[in-house]
DNA sequence: CAGGATCCACGCTGATACTG
DNA sequence: CAGTATCAGCGTGGATCCTG
């Protein structure tokens, strides 16, 4: 596979490129949390354990910039903001599911019990 | 998803666990390079562009320890060593393919041309 | 073919404080 | 409620250079 550049970063393969969109500790949990439809910031935070405001915000901003989520703010009080998946992000869900299944398979092999 | 520990490391999800086995810059390229069967060290290095001896060795050791590859040394001269995928690693290939496809999809959307 | 010695950047974390 | 701002620290992956 030939390597390529994007926004001045070098990638060795499409896999590496994909990981830029869904990799890291928090992006997949966020995408999964949004799978059923738009979710408010507060609910998002509640549904993703261990995440801090800081990480949630930075990851949401990053995902927005990558066109993986859309942000909608409503002029209400109290203020309401929700996030939703874009089409390209929805296509990532099956990949995440596959990764999840493979992880579960490995855990079983390693005899990890929850 | 409840979190869990393995070898004294904390994981938040099976996905994170899976990434420990196939994540990082080099593990997937290595696994893919071994997909058709055992490959010798030298050929492995030739087929994976940009990789250094250091990284190749470290990652192979790590994969061995995780039971993802097996190492076989032959008492010949010149010495010969080859590496092969284990069953659990073969099961990762479809996941890697899915990731690859998703990456290619994103690249197309971003209009990246090789 | 295998590795030691450095070194650095990056991703993530933690603490704390503040805002319309 | 839904963030913003900032400073510090840490572990790890990876790069570079060198050796046998």
From TrEMBL, chains A, B:
The keyword Disulfide bond does not apply. GO terms for molecular function: DNA binding. Keywords: DNA-binding, Transcription, Transcription regulation. The keyword DNA-binding applies. InterPro entries: HTH_HxlR (IPR002577), WH-like_DNA-bd_sf (IPR036388), WH_DNA-bd_sf (IPR036390). PROSITE patterns: HTH_HXLR. Pfam families: HxlR (PF01638). Residues 13-111 form the HTH hxlR-type domain. PANTHER family: TRANSCRIPTIONAL REGULATOR, TRANSCRIPTIONAL REGULATOR, MARR FAMILY. This is Transcriptional regulator, HxlR family.
